[in-house]
Amino acid sequence: MERNTKILIALFAGVVFIRLVLAFSMPTFTYESYFHLRQVDHILDEGLPQYYDGFSYGGREMRFLPFFHYFMAFFGLFLPLEIVAKIMPNLLISSLVITSYLISRKIFHHETGALLAAFIAGFLPILFHTNSFIVTTLFVPLTFLVIYAFLNLQERAEKDHPPKYLYFYMVSFLFLSLTSPLAALLLIGFGIYILLSLLEAKKINRAEIEIMLFSLFFFLWVQFLFFKESLLEEGWSFLWQNVPSSIIAQYFPKFSLTEALVLVSIIPFLAGAVVVYRSLFQIRNQKAFLLISLVIAATFLTWLRLIRFKQSLAFFSVILAILFSSFYQDLEKYFHKTKLAQYQKYLLPAILGLLLISTVLPAINAALLQERPSEEEIAAFRWLWENSPADTTIVATLEEGHLITYYTQRKNLIDDHFMLVNDAEKRFLDLTSLFTTHFQTQALEIAEKYGLEYFILTPSAKEKYNLKEELPYATKRCFEVAYQNETIIYRRLCRLEETELK
After folding, report:
1. Which residue, 142, 145, 124, 173, is CA-closest to 314?
2. What's the CA gap between 250 and 240, in Å, rounded?
3. 446 in Cβ contact with 452 (< 8 Å)
4. I need a surface site. Which of 30, 315, 351, 391 has the fewest CB within 10 A?
5. How far apart are CA 244 and CA 422, in angstroms?
6. What is the pLDDT of residues 450-478, one digit of tens each?
7. For residue 131, with 0-12 CB atoms within 10 Å meaning exposed, 13-18 middle and 19 or more buried, which class applies?
8. CB contact burial 56-69 (16+ within 10 A = b; e otherwise)
9. Mind listing the pLDDT tens digit for each residue in 118-129?
């Protein structure tokens, strides 16, 4: 086994080990994870995704791409689901170590640089959420697998046989199209890649054009099959996932340079910016054009608020890691040509030291600071499952909506899946009122409108809405404290008519 291969395997194993230690040291998952846990659970029980959810919004139709859930359900046949949810996402994200190495070596032909790219990809703070059981954990590795296959389309397995990576690309892209609509980002990147190549008078291989056209039509067909109802019902708002206008700025925040430097880490970000500039205006490396095109595509979609800022950042942070290989290669050449040649032996240790400080430590810190419910909060939701009627509707914060449906198996007022919900805007405004109003009549009016019986006030909700101890309108006459530790659960006792008579 080659020395570099051994280093790569050791790096992959090290990243997996650190991620799993952190994952199993924290018992709960991020808030969005609980939606996907329910879907995988439903597939294991029924064999099909839960496209009608009787608990979300009190009962509604849902549409989403199911490959992530079927993929995880396969492993759930052999292991408990919570173990699968800890292990598989971390293995998938860790595989970026290998994919980044292969792409970097393919484009820049520099072994040490490729290993450094793999190191950075393994410790990107934006992707070091070890307890996230979300589609992104499959989408990002699968995307870069497709990119690697695309870069190898011209190679042939044997004489008179089709390209050996063609079938690999087609299968990978099929799975990608069934994983997330964000696969459109790759197609837009292909379009920009063609444009850049034409501007630089670079010849585009016919096989690449054909595979791009195949990818475009196949992707559109898959999305139409799954989302035609959403498109017809919601119109253009379908592109923004029917997110309420009052929180669209929060849901799709604008680009923040400061946040990008923290979540990507400063060394890969600045090095990537230098490489992008040199690739476009000096070197004109056509294969690097593809990666740069994808960065432009992600930035463009983020600007249009068609993709969340952190999703975009997660995607092109891996590209910046790959581009670091070129930066290190140029740095080596610079040292070799100048009087600094005598210090060249210190270059690699110095770079590794800087990367250790700027990527590994922030990555571990990002894992420790994941936004997730505490065990005490989970205990409160479990209590509701045991002590509330089966037809109860419960209110909590937007993020905690999935905790209601997962742990209590009761109806919620709202959660963060807005597609195919006609009154999402009104529900969100009413939810905000329930946590901010001081008027009991207003709270009771909203409660009766949606049939709300239980109100959950967690420490997270108190922090979000700047509440000190309790809901200001929750008097003993109308609201009974049914459960209390760090979290308070109120049970509604009276109706608006009774309050008005009194």
Report:
1. 124
2. 13
3. yes
4. 391
5. 10
6. 889 999 999 998 988 888 878 888 888 88
7. buried
8. bbbebebbbbbbbb
9. 999 899 888 888
The secondary structure of residue 369, as a DSSP letter, is T
Which tokens sit at 90?
A: 């971390």
Q: In this predicted model, what pLDDT tens digit does every residue of 79-99 receive, in sequence order?
A: 999 999 999 999 999 999 999
- Work out whether strand 488-492 and strand 479-484 pair parallel, antiparallel, or are unpaired: antiparallel
Residue in the structure block whose two tokens are 């595979």: 211
- Pairing label, strands 452-457, 393-395: parallel
CA distance 228 to 1: 51
pLDDT of residue 404: 92
Q: How far apart are CA 90 and CA 96, in angstroms?
A: 10
3-state secondary structure 110-127: CHHHHHHHHHHHHCCHHH
Q: Exposure pattern of 146-160 as b/e (b: 16+ CB <10 Å)?
A: bbbbbbbbeeeeeee
Please give the pLDDT value at position 163: 67
Assess contact for 288 and 103: CB atoms under 8 A: no
Neighbour tally for 382: CB within 10 Å: 13
Q: CA 47, CA 41: separation in Å to the nearest integer?
A: 9
C-alpha distances in Å from residue 208, one per residue of 118, 186, 205: 26, 14, 5
* Alpha carbons 95 and 105: distance in angstroms, whole number: 16
Sign of CA dihedral 23, 29, 30, 36: positive
Radius of gyration for the chain, computed over Cα atoms and rounded to the nearest angstrom = 25
Query: How many CB atoms lie under 10 A from the CB of residue 54?
Result: 12
Distance, in Å, from the CA atom of 249 to the CA atom of 247, rounded to the nearest integer, reads: 5
- Classify burial at 333, counting beta carbons within 10 Å of its beta carbon; exposed 0-12, middle 13-18, buried 19 or more: exposed
CB-CB contact of 125 with 265 (8 Å): yes
What pLDDT digit, counting tens, does each position of 270-281 carry?
A: 666 666 666 655
pTM of the model: 0.88
What does 195-257 look like in DSSP terms, one character per residue? HHHHHTTPPPPHHHHHHHHHHHHHHHHHHHHHHHHHHHHHGGGGGGTT--GGGHHHHSPPP-H
- Residue 416, Cα to own-chain centre: how many angstroms? 14
- SS3 category, 53: strand
